[in-house]
Design a protein that fits this description.
homodimer; alpha/beta; Isopropylmalate Dehydrogenase; twelve-stranded mixed β-sheet; 15 helices; 12 strands; globular
Chain lengths: 355, 355
């Protein structure tokens, strides 16, 4: 159950080479750091080739700085950049030569098998839905975030693609994330929980109550409503929620952990004994930031579109890019998209329900 | 701005004696602990008298154990108890002699000025709404949780009374919690933020977008959408959200902090140097549990009902009971309920909107 990045990296290839477009621009991390991650990835995965999307001049410069040489990377010039706070639809219209627009276009044209981006989440999702289209039978694609909670993986879905969900969306999120958890995180028969304010049946808002019924009548290994504490004690593998709630919870956890780290750091300055004490625990606390970590398993795939799209955190560094490339490669080689389409087809309600 | 429990305790009486009904049964803490808190409270606040609600035999026994003697406490026999997971409406119907039903009844009959309970939140809220009724003009009462975030107070509303909110509800929550923050936490002109997944206008779900407009056109000191990180950097004083989201966020924060404390404790066992290190930082870490603390300022009042009802955490100990009594006393003596009713009357939209 305790799948680590290393275990996943060691898994045998189950398919052919994977052509992965990687968005190098955007986000909160220097471009050269992202490039370093990309080169590390091609070094580690010999069956991967990368299409590096970003401003060609800067990418060439970074290549020289790093001193990397490989015939499995190619630069795709994307001179303009979509900012993190730009309105997605408008930005995509105004910047067809941005890394997000061109990266997704490469997928749409069959020139790449997957796209990885740490850029504006809304823009990536919008471009994917518009250019690739939804998978057959899927009402609303959802973003699945594989989080490392303390020591184990939990896949939260949706974390921001769809902020006004209907019950059918939550059912399909459960189905899609279960396939993802099983295929990519090696979790057999994943336990699916519905994030709620209480564990009893009939708890929660209208969406919860109706979604509960749908999930219960599905073929999923549905364990019922789960309160947040369940998550921290490894009580479920897939956590289904509305995209508004999922996004808030994700940001809340991240902010709380960051603030605690800041707070400990500041407190340490107050007294010498604190400094000494924290020094002794350094290796213990280096894990603290990873208690709710979103880079260990790569990035968050947008499930339910016709193509492999992985969205990573804006602060994704070289390690994160490497893991996201590994994840994209596994996604492609294990044909996860086809398994998801089959699972949607196999669930009578998920298939038939009107949007 | 940095209002502590001590400062609040020291504030001069602004009204007459306060008769406060305290629910001693229920929750996750031994009855004698709650009784000790109640006796500490009457000792500290000479203008307070308490009606202790719970099974008379056990309460008498606890009184003898503690050895307390005062003519300002009286036991109100409430032989039955509503469990934390019982269905509120059904439990209230079946157990009219429970501490929750009788405590609220004392308020309804004018025999008490306030009711404090650590019991089943849904049952307390339902009893209050049914027996006391909503304040004039209030569509849906909301639970306001005054949290200590790192070092400062933030009032989150609603944290669970109303899980399917309309925009008018969120507007009224902002108005009611602003009065509460100003009157009881001494925060002048509180900054009201709308919890959202982004700071830009037009972010979020339908509820967010419509609520934003209402809040912006109100007389509140509305600062716009706030993301979770804003909360941890003291960017707002009142955090408005839907009761479903508020409840999830509250439980998520609590679980995460508890889990981190557990995790540090377990990690410490691994190596002697960790034990030594944490030992040196003991006083620093004793604060960790209070980074998102819900007992420092007392409990969470149900705002918008005709009466003072304070709901405290199920794990409320003697210290928490004392603070909740202090809070109830201030609420009564400062006529916060009347100020809230006036604020609702003064806001044209809040008054006129149809439910």
């Amino acid at each position: 159950m305790n799948t680590t990045a290393e275990q996943m990296a060691a898994e045998p290839d189950s398919g052919g080479p994977a052509r992965i477009a990687v968005d190098i621009s955007g986000g909160d991390v220097p471009l050269v750091e992202r490039m370093a991650g990309a080169f590390e990835a091609v070094e580690m995965y010999r069956d991967v080739s990368l299409l590096l999307c970003g401003p060609a001049d800067k990418l060439s410069e970074a290549t020289q700085t790093i001193g990397a040489e490989t015939d499995r990377t190619r630069i795709v010039d994307c001179p303009s950049e979509i900012g993190m706070h730009e309105s997605p639809i408008q930005a995509l219209r105004q910047k067809p030569d941005s890394s997000i627009a061109k990266g997704v276009q490469l997928l749409a044209e069959g020139k790449a098998d997957a796209f990885v981006s740490a850029g504006n989440t809304g823009a990536v999702a919008a471009a994917a839905i518009l250019k690739l289209g939804r998978s057959e039978g899927v009402h609303r694609p959802g973003i699945a975030a594989p989080m490392k909670v303390i020591d184990f993986p939990v896949v939260a879905i949706d974390v921001g693609a769809n902020v006004d969900c209907k019950p059918i969306n939550l059912l399909q999120y459960g189905i899609m994330a279960s396939v993802f958890a099983e295929e990519l995180l090696n979790i057999p028969n994943p336990r699916v929980g519905l994030l709620n304010i209480g564990e009893e049946i009939n708890k929660g808002n209208e969406l919860s109550k109706q979604s509960f019924e749908l999930l219960e009548s599905s073929k999923l290994n549905f364990i019922g409503n789960v309160e947040p504490k369940v998550l921290f004690h490894h009580g479920c593998d897939v956590l289904v929620c509305d995209g508004f709630v999922g996004n808030i919870v994700l940001k809340f956890s991240e902010s709380l952990v960051l603030r605690l780290v800041e707070w400990i750091r500041a407190g340490v300055q107050d007294r010498f004994r604190y400094k000494l004490g924290i020094g002794l625990c350094k290796s213990l606390f280096s894990h603290l930031r990873h208690c709710a970590d979103f880079t260990e398993y790569g990035g968050a795939p947008l499930l339910g579109v016709n193509g492999v799209v992985i969205i990573t955190h804006g602060a994704t560094d070289a390690y994160g890019i490497r893991n996201a490339v590994r994840e994209a490669r596994s996604f492609v080689q294990n044909h996860v998209g086809e398994h998801i389409a089959k699972a949607i087809r196999d669930d009578a309600y998920a298939r038939s329900a009107a949007d």
